Amino acid sequence: xxxxxxxxxxxxxxxxxxCNLTAQQKAKKDTIKxxxxxxVTALGIKRQDKSLGYSTQTIKSDEILQTQNNNWAQAxxxxxxxxxxxxxxxxxxxxxxxxxxxxxxxxxxNNGALIVVDGVPLSEKRTGTxxxxxxxxxxxxxxxxxxxxxxxxxxxxxxxxxILKGPTASALYGSRGSRGAIMITTKSGKxxxxxxxxTLNSYSSYDTVLKxxxxxxEYGQGTQQKDKNGNYYYSYGxxxxxxxxxxxxxxxxxxxxxxxxxxxxxxxxxxSLERKLWRPYKNNIKDxxxxxxxYSNSLSVEHSNESTAFRTSLSYxxxxxxxPNTGFNRLNAALSVxxxxxxxxxxxxxxxxxxxxxxxxxxxxxNNQSISYFxxxxxxxxxxxxxxxxxxxxxxxxxxxxxxxSYIDNPYLIAYENLNSTNKKILTxxxxxxxxxAKNLDVxxxxxxxxxxxxxxxxxxWSSANYLKGYxxxxxxxxxxxxxxxxxxxxxxxxxxxxTASAGGNIxxxxxxxxxxxxxxxxxxxxxxLSNATSLDSKLPKPNDNQVNSMxxxxxxxxxDMVFLDVTARNDWSSxxxxxxxxxxxxxxxxxxxxxxxxxxxxxxxxxxKLRLSWSKVGNDTYNYMLEKYYENSVFAGSVESPLLYPxxxxxxxxxxNIEGGMDFTILKNRLNFNFTAYQNNSKDQTIIIPxxxxxxxxxxxxxxxxxxxxxxxxxxxxxxxxxxxxxxxxNANWSMNRNKILSLPEEFNGQPYxxxxxxxVVYYNAVVGGSLGDIYGYGLMYSPDGQVIxxxxxxxxxxxxxxxxxxxxxxxxxxxxxxxxxxxxxxSFSFDGQYKGIAYSQSHHKMSEQGKLTHTLAGRDNxxxxxxxxxxxxxxxxxxxxxxxxxxxxxxxxxxxxxxNVETNSFDTSFIKLRDARISYSFPKxxxxxxxxxxxxLALFGRNLWMxxxxxxxxxxxxxxxxxTITPGVEIGQLxxxxxxxxxxxxxx
Length: 990
Prior knowledge:
mainly beta, Maltoporin, Chain A, 22-stranded antiparallel β-barrel, globular, disordered N terminus, siderophore uptake transmembrane transporter activity, transmembrane beta strand, signal, transport
């Protein structure tokens, strides 16, 4: 192997370059194909990759199916430069926050990439429970991850995924394409000529918890209470040993050292009659969790001939998640038919249906009714078995067993009585007609539909912490999204010049409704019906629809198949904007230069060299009903509520300007493919909601203001170090970085920060001119000029009066590395990915540290008097500093140092490396499968999230919070454990 190649491969292994998965094609002899690969672009138009002046990437179906689990979207993680799949760690359905090239909007929930399935854009609408992640003691409910349209797609039906990374690539999708697009093309059966093929794909996978917090089991429940003899002790309820110490959630009690105390006795549901051994129960959190399982079977039938291509499929997935009595099942059905009615007329249709059902999905967040809340408050001396009966004797469905605090629900009551069900049906489909009007002129018409109907219930029994007399809720959620497109296309060549010109229009109509009924209190315990309500709140749906009409045109010019120029133009008319600002126009231009052809540089060493340049401007409309005052429906029948948001009849469309440049290189007979891209996005006139004085009768108003700049670099590499008849080795890697800067803010803030979002009342995402999106602000420690922590005269940390920037939620860079080895019929593949820097605040770390549940709180407990002296200084009256010498009880020290408001001490570096997936498969030889009348038989073992390195102390450094329906990165509030998955897969083709 040549030294230059060896160097490049070494760099790729270090993660300095990134992969271009589009070049992964089968080899013929020692040359790897892929230069002329076809890419699905905006509006479903297929183009040669070499003609594109912007960055795209294609993922084939095999890469998605290699390591299946209950959320196939996570298979994309680490495989595409600039793509981030973020979940909230909120359960098995795993709603994803999908971003391309970072955030471009100050609205945290308005940065997701557009998802397009067979030319039908999916709705971005998500419906939460209307409650925040931090809700302990609020008397309300908590967020639940009900999934989304994206993860309900059957991965067995996917043929390929094209990633259109920037606004230029997806400009023709208008407002919704401003953040890039994920183009999903499903299978159609067109590749199977002349015969019927039946495919069975079956897999079973099993989940266990990937990482636990570092719990301590050396000390039990208590707050350093001492008896009359000055010794630490424990007593459940008052006893001969002293007053009650068994009601606290803290674990600063006596050390487990063979002593005996009066403790809780489940047989009497109270204090034990005799002293019992003071001992830890080291699996009293972990044993609550079980091995999760997922079983999936998918069957497809496809056939095609000269005039017709047909494919249909049916799949069923059943998941039992790691938390007992949670999980879901999903049924998917798909149909694709393409028929050539004549030489000039073609018609096709695709229909995909999914139904997701669950009797119970886990709730998330820091709330009395969350299992995360229980795990935080569970003490080392408490046996999990004590909770299993759920109900007190003779008090079934009336009074639960929660012997240590009435504010903490029994974990088995949470799992088996606090039920959150869903029955969601999603239908997507399209009908497309293509007619050749003349030799070089076609017209295509497509109508696409997304329809969803969901029924949800939430049950809370009597004696639950927030609903002493129970609670029951029903939600009926429906949305409807209809797109109609027509496109005229002219194609011709004029000597060395080629021209493709298209013009058309789109009408998009979206409608959303929700009926919400809540029974606050139940007359009869255990009867969950609205008619059993003590008090019934009914909220009828308000109108929620919008329409966008569009006209667009595009022209593709080529010269000698080595110079390409694309020009697009689109004009939208949005119903969400005022009539005088409703129309907005935006263009784009991109070019591709095949330098290896222009300068005649092709050789065995340099096969392909391309330069890409592009510029675009993309418009974006705003939220529904922001122009005039609309009254809200009230929970009281026949009444309405005055809105608190002041409308703005002068709203303007947001404009995003993008420039991008890059190069593609292919060398050594296409064995090495390298791509480089640099880009910049500027977003102006963002739609921002700002606070106003309550004296106005409102608390917020909406304006256009602010400018944000995004810059980034993406590198990708694909290499075949070895490729021969029996053995091949394919290496892919990617590296990307993104930096954004806030260039301006509304004048109303006069240099003060604008709070874009806040979580839990302590973490603030503040926008400051010169700062970045993702900047986390909060209270922290105070420091002396030489960098030492300042303490007060009471021995506790000095309290600042102003918040400060703690860090940024987004990493400095991300990288991924994939390897695939093939030896005859055996294939071994594995994938690593990770990120560098970024921080996340952890509410769970705060509370478990405050309560002495983690091993780092053991320091100082054996000190004389149980006192600890904080390392730092105190400020003297003259302004000088001297060492801190004041000792404070260990429980007080940790409770203060890691208090909830101290965002600094509870925020941690989120750098990580994960063995994201691994797979070993064996394809049986023809000598084995031909007698069985089988054309292909493959058996595989796979794993996902098998290993992780990180310094983040909680479950997963990829932390985010589900707040209502918004996924907010950089904050962990009640995160549920991440799964490590192993499984077996069988694929059979007849």
